[in-house]
Design brief:
With 316 residues, the protein is α/β, with parallel strands linked by helices. The chain is built from 10 helices and 13 strands. The longest helix is centred in the C-terminal third of the chain and has 25 residues. The structure holds zinc ion.
């Protein structure tokens, strides 16, 4: 049997067929065009059918459907409460799908689905816990504690990106100042790199960016560091300091078995990202005199984590 995982992204609906071992067999995506809830659910069904057709399968081969939503879900009722990218409010999507496809439908927040996917990959026992920290436009965090997704009383748990690390600092989209994601997301690193270039017209970063700050991305400062640029080194070290503060807070609070770093930045060489992060956390973590401690590692499922995790929600 297979499960279908659906990832509702900012611009695309992505779906994948996942086998019983958690392997992604095939994937498809279509542009996300919001033309009302009926069309939205019809698109989801069509996407699922297309995946099955490609493999010469029919709906009978599917044991469950899971869906990762960028927003808040009520997983007990199978309802999308609200999303950040499309104007969905209180859509009983599970029930709507089941009208024409009577199969169990599971919902999760997208960061939760990604964390669950990584957990299913990493964990060896139900006692284990995992925190996924995804560095992107913001910082997404998902929590699996003792083998269970931790969703909180209202489905909103795991907003680790909004831990305040600089009181009175930069204004965040959530309304507070100094949130971790304002300093340690991939977007924050881009802003920090551009600010350093503006302050240092002779920095080697300019050459890497082809003389144009709009070419700066999350790799620019790391590339500068590789080339021995002193300004780039400062940017990366400051960035890693910020990253380590939030990671240490999460570890001190939860002591998970694994803390995985995901997002495009996690593809940096370990020598430049993972190892210096581990060294920083090692000096700060509360339990540093204990032998057994959280393993800080890279996420492994990449962009497929959301699809795979959504498909595996049926295992919860
Ligand atoms: Zn915030």
């Amino acid at each position: 049997m297979y499960a279908i995982g659906i990832d509702i992204g900012g611009t695309n609906l992505k779906a994948g067929l996942v086998d019983e071992r958690g392997g992604l067999v095939s994937a498809e995506k279509i542009p996300l065009r919001w033309e009302g809830p009926e069309k939205f659910v019809a698109d989801l069904l069509a996407l699922g059918d297309r995946l099955l057709e490609q493999q010469g399968l029919d709906r009978g081969a599917v044991s469950s459907v899971g869906m990762g939503v960028p927003g808040v879900v009520d997983h007990r009722r199978g309802t999308i409460v609200k999303t950040t990218n499309i104007p969905i409010r209180d859509l009983p999507v599970a029930e709507w799908i089941q009208r024409s496809w009577p199969v169990p439908v599971h919902l999760g927040n997208d960061a939760d689905c990604a964390a669950w996917g990584e957990y299913c990959h990493f964990s060896h026992s139900e006692e284990e816990s995992l925190v996924l920290v995804t560095l992107g436009t913001g910082i997404g965090t998902g929590l699996v504690l003792g083998g269970r997704l931790h969703r909180g009383c209202n489905g909103c748990a795991g907003e680790g990106g909004h831990i305040v690390i600089v009181p009175g600092g930069e204004l965040c989209s959530c309304g507070r100042r100094g949130c971790w994601e304002r300093y340690a997301s991939a977007s924050a690193l881009v802003r920090q790199t551009r600010a350093a270039m503006a302050a240092h017209p002779d920095a080697g970063l300019w050459e890497i960016a082809g003389g144009d700050p709009s070419n700066v991305d999350g790799r620019t400062a790391f590339e500068g560091l590789r080339r021995g640029d002193a300004v780039a080194r400062q940017v990366v070290e400051q960035y890693l300091d910020y990253l380590a503060e939030g990671v240490t807070d999460l570890i001190n609070l939860l002591q998970p078995t694994f803390l995985c770093i995901g997002g495009g930045l996690s593809h940096e060489d370990d020598a430049y990202l993972l190892h210096p992060l581990q060294r920083r956390v090692e000096t700060m973590r509360f339990d540093r005199d204990l032998q057994r401690h959280t393993e800080i590692c890279k996420a492994v499922l990449g962009n497929d984590a959301g699809i795979i995790g959504a498909a595996l929600l049926g295992r919860l």
